[in-house]
């Protein structure tokens, strides 16, 4: 395994939050960071949010918010609303929502996992780790909690521990695309783009893989300098307007590093002779 490159990882952390799935490329017109490292399941009503354009997403989240205000104790609405808020960069508001949902459902492990995700997105990484670890039970381990714990550990720079949690999640839930994607993005954060691409290709081929997994694959391909291939991947399942906006964001993000050659020679770990 390659050693982690702090400068490279720090830049990528800007794009990452509570799962390792990066939302930036999935939100047309939005330069928000997802990454959030996104893990675990998303309530059914919220599964298609990642396919919306920026304005469409904002309207959808506002609609979920109105439903949440009518019944703030409703578990699924609260989970959907908090996730949507994080997708639109409103992490502090998402944390407040999840805190209220957790008060109403204190023993619900999916709720606690989502609370940990919201805490991580708001920058409260140690709190997030504690929340997720308290929710896990050795006699009934939850793969979503292992995946969420791994995402937080990755953000804390503890990649070996993070990958151990992803493996534990996959033992319970084999071939889950979100967990495999998180594993791939873990290798992105440590600068091993080839291994990251292998995992993300595997994740993208699994049933149930959403567009964010494939956008992550496009990102990693682009980070290796294969920009035409990255564009093709990014445009596969988006309409022309969404694809154009996402590709413009990708180009701008990559241009920040001056050139691909400089990125690869200055930032990536050099092989030992």
List strands and helices in order, with pairings:
Layout: H1 6-13, H2 54-70, H3 75-87, H4 91-104, H5 109-121, H6 125-135, H7 143-155, H8 159-172, H9 177-189, H10 193-204, H11 211-223, H12 227-235, H13 240-255, H14 260-267
Question: What are its keywords?
Answer:
single chain; 273 residues; mainly alpha; 14 helices; 64% helix; disordered N terminus; disordered C terminus
Structure description:
The chain is mainly α. Helices cover 64% and strands 0% of the residues. It is built from 14 helices and no strands. It has helices at 6-13, 54-70, 75-87, 91-104, 109-121, 125-135, 143-155, 159-172, 177-189, 193-204, 211-223, 227-235, 240-255, 260-267. Helix 5 runs parallel beside helix 7 (143-155) and helix 10 (193-204) packs antiparallel against helix 11. The longest helix has 17 residues, at 54-70. The two termini are 15 Å apart.
Brief sketch in words of this structure:
By secondary structure, the protein is mainly α. The chain has 14 helices and no strands.
The number of E-state strands comes to: 0
Distance between the termini: 15 Å
Rg calc: 18 Å
Main structural class:
mainly alpha
Shape: globular
- Approximately how much helix is present in the residues? 55-70%
Let me know the largest β-sheet: none
Number of helices: 14
What percent of residues are in strands?
under 5%
> Averaged pLDDT, please?
76
| Low-pLDDT segments, ≥5 res | 1-46, 256-273
| Helix and strand sequence | HHHHHHHHHHHHHH
């Amino acid at each position: 395994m390659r050693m982690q490159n702090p400068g490279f990882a720090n830049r990528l952390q800007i794009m990452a939050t509570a799962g390792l799935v990066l939302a930036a490329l999935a939100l047309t017109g939005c330069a928000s960071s997802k990454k959030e490292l996104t893990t675990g399941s998303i309530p059914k009503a919220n599964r298609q949010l990642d396919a919306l354009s920026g304005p469409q997403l904002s309207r959808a989240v506002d609609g979920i918010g109105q439903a949440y205000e009518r019944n703030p104790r409703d578990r699924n609405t609260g989970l959907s609303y908090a996730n949507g808020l994080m997708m639109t960069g409103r992490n502090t508001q998402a944390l407040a929502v999840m805190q209220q949902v957790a008060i109403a459902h204190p023993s619900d492990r999916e709720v606690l996992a989502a609370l940990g995700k919201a805490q991580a997105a708001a920058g409260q990484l140690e709190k997030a780790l504690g929340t997720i670890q308290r929710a896990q039970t050795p006699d009934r381990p939850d793969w979503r909690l292992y995946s969420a714990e791994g995402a937080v550990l990755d953000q804390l720079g503890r990649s070996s521990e993070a990958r151990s949690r992803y493996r534990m999640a996959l033992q319970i839930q084999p071939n889950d695309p979100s967990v495999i994607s998180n594993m791939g993005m873990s290798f992105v954060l440590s600068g091993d783009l080839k291994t990251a691409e292998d995992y993300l290709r595997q994740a993208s081929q699994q049933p149930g893989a959403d567009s964010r997994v494939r956008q992550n694959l496009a990102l990693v391909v682009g980070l290796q300098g294969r920009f035409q291939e990255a564009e093709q991947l990014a445009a596969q399942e988006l309409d022309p307007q969404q694809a154009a906006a996402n590709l413009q964001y990708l180009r701008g993000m990559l241009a920040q590093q001056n050139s691909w050659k400089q990125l690869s020679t200055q930032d990536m770990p050099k092989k030992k002779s």
